[in-house]
């Protein structure tokens, strides 16, 4: 006879879907799933609070390049922004408030990291090994985002550096930079924001610039309490503001798809640079040598003034090696420093979540992507990876708000989860001919965009020289394509064989 202990054993719970990550995408996924009547899901988050990249990046001056009105969920507008462009603490507060308002926090298992997500073909289930144990799910939404893995280059001699060293995404707030000699490596989006904040504090600031970025004036201004109350009392202002920002970003996207349209802006920016920087040597050093938009366009009003401060020196070359506490540029310039701050961005060329995912063929996605560029269908579903969705995946980036991109994809994803449940689908996988045709057309249309033809080497292009990141059409076109989960694009298996197959 079975023991009393065995008699009490229960079958492990199987979730309809499983959400990995509680940042912008993960929170929206939870809210949309519940709105559509899907309640049998689980969320895990490796940290102890929500927020994603806005929780992790706390460097001085951290903020958003998209106006606040649009950098928020369409279903949860806020009137609490202090400026036209929100600062990091405000965005994090906003995400935590949304989590509270929609009662999402109780659904999240915090301090739980995903170790592996392995597809079990025999059961048509995902087996998820986490730091807190194993879970089973019929589908998975990978909502970890592309900006998660800080990138630090391998530099000869770095092991012998005796000072302090950290990446901007892992800022050492306990370290007092006052009176220190500091080297900043990189001039990307993060460095543009924190350099002006630390420049007045340090004794000497050396900025290593491998490629001069386009830095345009940031049309920022404080909103004040009166402005906040006005937006709160009159939602029509919030709506009009959001639509105006969306229209302006659509114009920028048109220019990125049609580089000739940006030439007048490039010329105006070069003329403005003459007014902003008087020293002709420095001005030449920060003059971009590629088409506007080929790399990420940066916005700041205080970066160029900080470069012209008496305690700052720009070296228009990359860091080549380190000798003790001396940093040495590619042109031989040497500077003795106490602190190195890496402003070198993130490894986005291959979605970091790929290291955790093992597909239906038993292949780890990150290993596949070492030899070939990552691909997805509509940036959302991947070949040989059944019942799985990725948010902000390959070739879905548009110059817009990540909130709007995530919401567009989640319309598609949640519809897919619902159809799985309602139609008794046990397995779906994007058809090989569908994903091939999609990516062939996508790559063809990317050729004329500024990302591919603008004369730069950006993070949009991977080691194969292939654009793995950008969407070559408008956000409206992407939203239209993602409106419905089309079963005809997928090979399907049903829990009951009597159910009809979809052509």
Report what the structure shows.
This protein has helices at 4-7, 24-35, 53-56, 88-101, 189-198, 224-233, 235-257, 263-276, 280-285, 303-307, 365-371, 402-423, 432-446, 450-453, 475-481, and strands at residues 14-15, 17-20, 41-44, 108-109, 114-120, 125-130, 133-137, 140-142, 164-167, 181-185, 204-208, 215-216, 298-299, 312-315, 319-323, 326-329, 334-336, 339-342, 357-358, 388-390, 425-430, 490-494. Helix 6 (224-233) packs across helix 7 (235-257). It is an alpha/beta fold and 503 residues long. The protein contains 15 helices and 22 strands. The strands form six sheets. A five-stranded mixed β-sheet has the order 1-7-6-5-19, with no helix packed on it. A five-stranded parallel β-sheet has the order 4-3-2-8-20, covered by helices on one side. A five-stranded parallel β-sheet has the order 9-18-10-11-14, with no helix packed on it. One of its GO terms (molecular function) is monooxygenase activity. It comes from Oceanococcus atlanticus. It holds the Pfam family Pyr_redox_3. InterPro entries: FAD-bind_Monooxygenase_sf, FAD/NAD-bd_sf.
- The SS-based structural class is alpha/beta
Shape: globular
Q: How many whole angstroms does the radius of gyration measure?
A: 24 Å
Per DSSP E runs of 2 or more residues, the count of β-strands stands at 22
Average pLDDT over all residues: 93
Strand content: 15-25%
CATH superfamily annotation of the largest domain? FAD/NAD(P)-binding domain
